[in-house]
Amino acid sequence: MKSSRREFLKKSTVTGAGAIIAPTVISSNVFGANDRINAAVLGVNGRGKSHISGLMNQKNVQVAILCDPDLNIANKRAGEFKEKYGKTVIVEQDLRNVMDNKDIDVVSIATPNHWHSLSVIWACQAGKDAYVEKPGSHNIWEGRKMVEAAEKYDRIVQHGVQLRSSPAVQEAIQLMRDGYIGRVYMARGLVFRERGDIGNKGFSPVPEGINYDLWTGPAPKRPFTENLVHYNWHWHWDYGNGDVGNQGIHETDLCMWGLDVGLPTKITSMGGKFLWDDCKEVPEVLTSVYHYPEENKIIQFEVRPWHTNTEEGVTVGNIFYGDKGILVVDGYSEYKTYLGKDREPGKSGSDGAMQASGIDRGAGGTDGHFANFIAAVRAHDKTLLNGPVETAHLSSALAHLGNIAYRTGKVLTFNPDSERFVNDPEADLMLTRNYRNSYVVPKIV
């Protein structure tokens, strides 16, 4: 519902979505407290390994299917699964077979970015709930379709930004809501990660065991190269979104959550490749600025690829600026504050310290985020979600806007209500893409 988009985050609670209105029709797929939930993990090369353990660590949840277009990887994970859990798991190469399997209740999506939204939409259409790795979308249009699908088919969709389930980060957000550092007017997102030279391996035959057509899915099908499969797709526009759309989604999400804003109206970005003469298409260094004139707030976001200084001791995290002090979030699970012009240390917190104190503050991290997802699935209540589908769309869209500003070389004006640029057809073309037959992201009507 586009008219309520800007108010979504403002109505959010610290620990949950709050603002999404659940449909009155309840799915027949409602679980009792002791009913087993059968899960499938889509994409098991990298982050999918954490999805497997995160689900298996939940009470009465069983990973039943591992799915990957590379059967070499899928079979390897199945062997590891058997050794670790003493159970046999089904291996699938085509995620459409997973969607057709009536025994699967939830899917956990750790595919490359270009598959995320379509996987969620297909899951919703198949009556399954979904946990989707960040970013929720590869472009802004398909992110909105993902939101619409979750609403239309009444499904539970959690975004894999586990810091939203961190008790320490939740406490930090509440401090800002309560005015602890004064009026918060700026957020800074930091992604300083070592990203080395990936070279240029050129084209090669598709290795045996990989269904490259399935791997490519909705994206343009290029000649096969090891520079795409299995991780370096992050650095190619057709499949990834650079580091602002990789690690950076945790930080774009927290910037918006902490500032209590939706999408901006003014965006500019500048950067480039300064270190490596390799085949990466995305910038190694990227600085983006997102302006909210109506709210009188601003987001600054910076990506750096190699040896660099820290900021307030942080290499990956966020800094919030208020008129009484600053609040620093380091990584996913701890924060510090500094007050006044003399930078007096203020309140701080970490998930580890909270747990060590014996206070029951809940669990952060991947397991805690999956626990939150499973609780919402069992209750069939999307208001319980810490990272609901709308936030997946918005935090991903913020990264996409910065990338579009960089690629067009313009200061862009954006309409958050229509989710289109103002009088800029060139930029509008980058809001979506042409999809290949059999892998089209559908309109949701």
UniProtKB/TrEMBL annotation:
<feature type="domain" description="Gfo/Idh/MocA-like oxidoreductase bacterial type C-terminal">
    <location>
        <begin position="369"/>
        <end position="439"/>
    </location>
</feature>
<dbReference type="InterPro" id="IPR050463">
    <property type="entry name" value="Gfo/Idh/MocA_oxidrdct_glycsds"/>
</dbReference>
<dbReference type="InterPro" id="IPR019546">
    <property type="entry name" value="TAT_signal_bac_arc"/>
</dbReference>
<dbReference type="InterPro" id="IPR043906">
    <property type="entry name" value="Gfo/Idh/MocA_OxRdtase_bact_C"/>
</dbReference>
<dbReference type="InterPro" id="IPR006311">
    <property type="entry name" value="TAT_signal"/>
</dbReference>
<dbReference type="Pfam" id="PF01408">
    <property type="entry name" value="GFO_IDH_MocA"/>
</dbReference>
<feature type="domain" description="Gfo/Idh/MocA-like oxidoreductase N-terminal">
    <location>
        <begin position="37"/>
        <end position="160"/>
    </location>
</feature>
<feature type="domain" description="Gfo/Idh/MocA-like oxidoreductase bacterial type C-terminal">
    <location>
        <begin position="204"/>
        <end position="255"/>
    </location>
</feature>
<dbReference type="GO" id="GO:0000166">
    <property type="term" value="F:nucleotide binding"/>
</dbReference>
<protein>
    <submittedName>
        <fullName>Gfo/Idh/MocA family oxidoreductase</fullName>
    </submittedName>
</protein>
<dbReference type="InterPro" id="IPR036291">
    <property type="entry name" value="NAD(P)-bd_dom_sf"/>
</dbReference>
<dbReference type="Pfam" id="PF19051">
    <property type="entry name" value="GFO_IDH_MocA_C2"/>
</dbReference>
<dbReference type="InterPro" id="IPR000683">
    <property type="entry name" value="Gfo/Idh/MocA-like_OxRdtase_N"/>
</dbReference>
